[in-house]
Amino acid sequence: MATKSTHKKKIKEIRIDKKFCKACGICIEFCPTKVFDADEFGYPVVARLDACTGCKLCEDRCPDLAIEVIEEKKEEKEEKDGKG
Q: How far apart are CA 82 and CA 62, in angstroms?
């Protein structure tokens, strides 16, 4: 029996390119952990980066390719954990 991994990827940053974003709200609605809020103009802003699981639904569903989810590299994780 297969079990679903509950391993959470460590996300370093979520970039939103406002030159391409049209404030459609798809990323805000699709995010299962509600990482995004809308600013006063309806553009997504990262409000809860620590809640991000790295599923990349926002990146995959964005019709304007305006979102990039950047995972922390293994070396960066080790440095933060004091192993590097």
A: 36
- Kindly report the CATH number that applies to the domain delimited by 20-73: 3.30.70.20
Identify residue 59 by its one-letter amino acid code.
E
Q: Say whether pLDDT at 4 is over 50.
A: no
> Would you say residue 25 has pLDDT above 70?
yes
Alpha carbon separation from 38 to 5, 44, 81 (Å, rounded):
30, 5, 33
Rounded distance, CA 45 to CA 38, Å?
Answer: 6
Task: Give domain limits for the chain.
Answer: 20-73
Structure tokens at 29: 């609605």
